[in-house]
Structure formats: structure tokens, C-alpha cells
């Protein structure tokens, strides 16, 4: 990804790019493979620093963790106050906050920038989420704008906020990516097991969906994956891929952070746990003999069922994005970042993995009401949920009756119903807490905290 980002940078007018790799052979090979880039090779940090114009800007693309710290330390040695070090990896945002503070103390700027789009995006234009200081952004802004993807004439980069804000937002982007992927996978599974259609036939369904409100990169590539045949066996490739999903950790970070912030990102959590569940072969083998419905009942009206699944997918997707934006809002409040949620939706419209038409609707929702407490309550999304909720319920019922796991569909629906509920059984939980731990409760009819003498005469005391 680093090489592609360097090639992207070098291809833009006015940019000259110096490159430094741990292995000098890799640098030589890159220079030889891409003479058009006009790369300036460096063999050590001093040479790299000497090759750059002031204020120097270095973009670090190494593994998150110790390798990033080592590279930053080495750059700090050779850089001067006013220079900029950008970490373009998937760093954990608390690390970015720590690094920014440490590097800033030397007078050098440190910018944690989330970069999304994979190898291809890095070369052709990624979506970029930089944090760091305003001073760094003044120099860096034009450079990043020159390489970012463009959506409706606007570059997909914005100064997200200070210190770790960029990596925080990239983390949540990945959490949403997990939810989006899981929801699509559940939709595929439901259609396959509910109608018996082949992967290639379901590819046609996704291709069709990609022409409507679900239009997105992930739906588009889903159709391509489902259409692929395995050259060795002639069967659909999806049937010979081991069904154990990997994860590098950003989904788990999103969920851990949400737990710490008290933000319910249940769809993202279910998506993350679904990957964990898939990757427990011993447990799956042990549980395989547990009873369930005999055979999946075929959908009586296949076309209607597929349309229900489409609507359930769209409704669950709205919930997942709403939860993700809620986490960004809460994270910004906690860390004192001023994050423009509409601007985030805009920079995700192109270049990144979750790019979709849908993000225009999110940008519009925040433009209409910048202080929107919850995305899914914005008029456009509230109407879409109202339209889709009956189909959504039918799909969750069908999945449950058929024994087809649809954790993200079901938990998104439960979240929707939980928020809608006039009264929640949380009142009972408060009673239980007061019973065993004298944790007290508040009443609907009077201010203050109360405790009932559960093991005494059951009278109530105002605290
Ligand atoms: C991106 C991707 C990218 C990568 C993740 C996925 O925005 O370009 O999100 O960051 O694909 O690392 O990680 P998992 O391996 O956890 O799915």
C-alpha cells in the first residue's frame, strides 16, 4: 500500500517523492519498476531527510505497533521543528494521541491519518482521514487533496480533528465496514438457504440491488465474488473458501471503544463476534449435532422474500451507520474534538471501502440538522425505516424459524425497537440492582434517588 501511495503522490503535478524502505533492495526495485515516478531513493533516515524540501513531510506506512514507534523515533532524530510526520497506518487512536503529544514536544508535527481504499485506492485515490494540528493541516492539506479520491468534485479528505481524531474516525469506518460486510453475508445466506438459488444467481440479485438505494462498492464486489468459479474444481469459489473470517483488530477496537464510551454499537459488535464465531472450528464441530429446524423451508414466493431481504438489509445498514456516527459523536465529545459528521460522510463517498450513494443521504441529514442526536431519526432515514420495518421483521422471523443465523439483522432490529420503546425493562434491572446492592433508583414521578428496604419492611427511603 505504501508503494502505491508513493506512486500516487509522485504522479501529481508538483510533487517529488523520496522513498525509504527497511530493505534498500525494495527501494531499488521500486525505483526500477516505476521510472515514471521519478522517485528519489534514500538508504537511511539522514539521506531521506536531506532529500526533502522544508517543511519536510514524511508519510509512514508500516505495521501498526512497535514498527510505527521505531520509525517515528528515527524520523524525529533527523527532522526539525515545523516538519511533519504522518502515520498513514491503521493505528489504534490512543497510540496516536500518545505519539502526537510526544512528537509535538519536539516541535515536529505528528499527524495520524486514516487511509482507506486498499492497494487500489492508495494508487488511484483513497479516502483520507487526517488528525493532528491546524498548523500541520495547512501544509499537509494541499498534498493530501492532490492524491485523494474525488466525489462529486470534492476531494475525499478533511481535517477530522486534533491528535487522534483521524485514526478514531478510520477505526469507526472499519467497524461500519465489518457491519456492512456481515449484513451482506447474512442477506446472501438467507437467499441461498431460503430459496436454493446458486451463488451465480445470487450474484445477479446483488448486481440488481447495486442499481438501487443499496448501490455501493461492497455490494458490487459481492456480486463479483459470488460469480467467481474455482478453476480447480469448477464449483463456485465461495463454496471452496474456508468459512472462517479473519480480522486484524479494528472492528474489535471499535466495539471496545464503544463499550468504554457507553455507545450501543450492537450491529458492529455482532458483526465482529460473527467473525470470531466462524473462526472457532472446534466449537462449531462440537455444536454441529445440536438440534435445530429439520430443513430450511423454501420461501413460497421467492421474489417477495428476496425483496424482503433487500429491505431488511437496507434498514439494518441504516442502523449500523447510525450507530457508527453515534460513536464518532460520543468520541468527539469525550476527547474534545470538533468533528463535522457531515464532512465525514462526504469524504467516505469515494475511495474507501464503504463508499456508497447512501453517504450523500447522511451528509444531507447532517446539513439539515448539524446537531442531529441520532442519524436514523433524520427524516429520510426515519421514513426508510418505517417503509422497511415490516419486511425486516418478516426476515428476522423467517431466519429464526429456519435456524439461519442472522445476528446483525436481528440485533439491528432489536436496537430499533429498543430505542422506540415507550418503556424498557431497564426499570426492572434498576429494581434488581437496588435489591442486591442498594444501588438506588430514580422514580418517574419524583426527583431524587430512592432505595427500598428489601430485606426489611420493604419501605422506601429517599436518599
Ligand atoms: C480500508 C480497509 C483496510 C483493511 C482493514 C480490514 O479502509 O482500506 O478497512 O483498512 O481492509 O484492515 O481489516 P480486517 O482484516 O480486520 O478485515
From TrEMBL:
It comes from the Bacteria. It is an enzyme of class 1 (oxidoreductase). GO terms for molecular function: phosphogluconate dehydrogenase (decarboxylating) activity. Residues 166-455 form the 6-phosphogluconate dehydrogenase C-terminal domain. It catalyses: 6-phospho-D-gluconate + NADP(+) = D-ribulose 5-phosphate + CO2 + NADPH. Its EC number is 1.1.1.44. InterPro entries: 6-PGluconate_DH-like_C_sf, 6PGD_dom2, 6PGDH_C, 6PGDH_Gnd/GntZ, 6PGDH_NADP-bd, NAD(P)-bd_dom_sf, Pgluconate_DH. Pathway: Carbohydrate degradation; pentose phosphate pathway; D-ribulose 5-phosphate from D-glucose 6-phosphate (oxidative stage): step 3/3. Keywords: Gluconate utilization, NADP, Oxidoreductase, Pentose shunt. The keyword NADP applies. Gene3D superfamilies: 6-Phosphogluconate Dehydrogenase, domain 3, N-(1-d-carboxylethyl)-l-norvaline Dehydrogenase, domain 2, NAD(P)-binding Rossmann-like Domain. The keyword Transmembrane helix does not apply. Homodimer. NCBIfam families: gnd, PRK09287.1. Catalyzes the oxidative decarboxylation of 6-phosphogluconate to ribulose 5-phosphate and CO(2), with concomitant reduction of NADP to NADPH. Belongs to the 6-phosphogluconate dehydrogenase family. This is 6-phosphogluconate dehydrogenase, decarboxylating. It comes from Leucobacter allii. The gene is gndA.
Amino acid at each position: 500500500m505504501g508503494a502505491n501511495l508513493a506512486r500516487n503522490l509522485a504522479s501529481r503535478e508538483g510533487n517529488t517523492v523520496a522513498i525509504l524502505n527497511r530493505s534498500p533492495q525494495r527501494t531499488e526495485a521500486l525505483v526500477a519498476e516505476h521510472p515514471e515516478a521519478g522517485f528519489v531513493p534514500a538508504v537511511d533516515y539522514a539521506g531521506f531527510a536531506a532529500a526533502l524540501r522544508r517543511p519536510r513531510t514524511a508519510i509512514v506506512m508500516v505495521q501498526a505497533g512497535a514498527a510505527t514507534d521505531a520509525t517515528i523515533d528515527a524520523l524525529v532524530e533527523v527532522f526539525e521543528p515545523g516538519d511533519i510526520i504522518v502515520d498513514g497506518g491503521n493505528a489504534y487512536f490512543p497510540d496516536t494521541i500518545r505519539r502526537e503529544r510526544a512528537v509535538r514536544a519536539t516541535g515536529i508535527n505528528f499527524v495520524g491519518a486514516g487511509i482507506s481504499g486498499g492497494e487500489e485506492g492508495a494508487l488511484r485515490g483513497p479516502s483520507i482521514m487526517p488528525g493532528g494540528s491546524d498548523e500541520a493541516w495547512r501544509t499537509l492539506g494541499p498534498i493530501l487533496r492532490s492524491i485523494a479520491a474525488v466525489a462529486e468534485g470534492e476531494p475525499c479528505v478533511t481535517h477530522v480533528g486534533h491528535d487522534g481524531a483521524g485514526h478514531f474516525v478510520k477505526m469507526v469506518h472499519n467497524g461500519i465496514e465489518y457491519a456492512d460486510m456481515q449484513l451482506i453475508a447474512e442477506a446472501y445466506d438467507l437467499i441461498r438457504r431460503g430459496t436454493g438459488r446458486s451463488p451465480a444467481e445470487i450474484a445477479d440479485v446483488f448486481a440488481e440491488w447495486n442499481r438501487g438505494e443499496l448501490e455501493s462498492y461492497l455490494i458490487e464486489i459481492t456480486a463479483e465474488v459470488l460469480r467467481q468459479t474455482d478453476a480447480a474444481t469448477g464449483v463456485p469459489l465461495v463454496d471452496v473458501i474456508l468459512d472462517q473470517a479473519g480480522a486484524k483488530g479494528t472492528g474489535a477496537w471499535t466495539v471496545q471503544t464503544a463499550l468504554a464510551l457507553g455507545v450501543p454499537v450492537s450491529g458492529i459488535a455482532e458483526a465482529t463476534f460473527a467473525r470470531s464465531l466462524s473462526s472457532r472450528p472446534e466449537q462449531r464441530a462440537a455444536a454441529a449435532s445440536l438440534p435445530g429446524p429439520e430443513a430450511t423451508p423454501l420461501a413460497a414466493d421467492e421474489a417477495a422474500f428476496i425483496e424482503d431481504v433487500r429491505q431488511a438489509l437496507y434498514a439494518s445498514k441504516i442502523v449500523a451507520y447510525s450507530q457508527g456516527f453515534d460513536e464518532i459523536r460520543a468520541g468527539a465529545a469525550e476527547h474534545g474534538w470538533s468533528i463535522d459528521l457531515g464532512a465525514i460522510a462526504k469524504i467516505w463517498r469515494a475511495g474507501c471501502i464503504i463508499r456508497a450513494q447512501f453517504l450523500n443521504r447522511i451528509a444531507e441529514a447532517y446539513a439539515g440538522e448539524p446537531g442531529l442526536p441520532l442519524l436514523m431519526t433524520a427524516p429520510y432515514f426515519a421514513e426508510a425505516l418505517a417503509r422497511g420495518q415490516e419486511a425486516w421483521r418478516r426476515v428476522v422471523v423467517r431466519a429464526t424459524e429456519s435456524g439461519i443465523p442472522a445476528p446483525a439483522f436481528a440485533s439491528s432490529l432489536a436496537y430499533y425497537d429498543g430505542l422506540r420503546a415507550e418503556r424498557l425493562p431497564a426499570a426492572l434491572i434498576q429494581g434488581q440492582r437496588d435489591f442486591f446492592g442498594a444501588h438506588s433508583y430514580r422514580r418517574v414521578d419524583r426527583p431524587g434517588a430512592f432505595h427500598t428496604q428489601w430485606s426489611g419492611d420493604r419501605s422506601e427511603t429517599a436518599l
